[in-house]
Amino acid sequence: MTEKTVKFEFEKENKNSVRYKEVPEDGMPPIVGSIYVQKWFAGNSKNIEVTIYKKN
Fold first, then answer.
1. Contact by Cβ (8 Å): 45, 29
2. What pLDDT score does 53 carry?
3. Can you tell me the distance from the alpha carbon of 26 to that of 29, in angstroms, rounded to the nearest whole number?
4. Nearest CA among 5, 1, 4, 17 for reference residue 48
5. How many CA atoms lie within 13 A of 24 on its CB side?
6. Half-sphere exposure at residue 35, Cβ-oriented, CA atoms within 13 angstroms
7. Domain ranges in the chain?
8. Less Cβ crowding at N or C end of the chain, within 10 Å?
């Protein structure tokens, strides 16, 4: 199993969610792009990290 932690930074706040854009590693294309996280969980966080597990 392969594991990758992807970093995101605040992009935009909507009515019930917050959009975060991926901060790609130098010279690499984005893996995910943007994600939406519900406000009740995101709170005031300006940066989040998501860990992806890829099963072989």
1. no
2. 95
3. 9
4. 5
5. 9
6. 18
7. 2-54
8. C
Q: How many whole angstroms separate alpha carbon 29 and alpha carbon 9?
A: 16
Whose tokens are 């992806």? That residue is: 52
The pTM (predicted TM-score) of the whole model is 0.88
What token pair was written down for 20? 């975060």
SS3 8: strand
- At 5 the three-state DSSP class reads strand
Distance in angstroms (rounded) separating the CA atoms of residues 17 and 36: 6
Looking at per-residue pLDDT, the higher value among 56 and 7 belongs to: 7
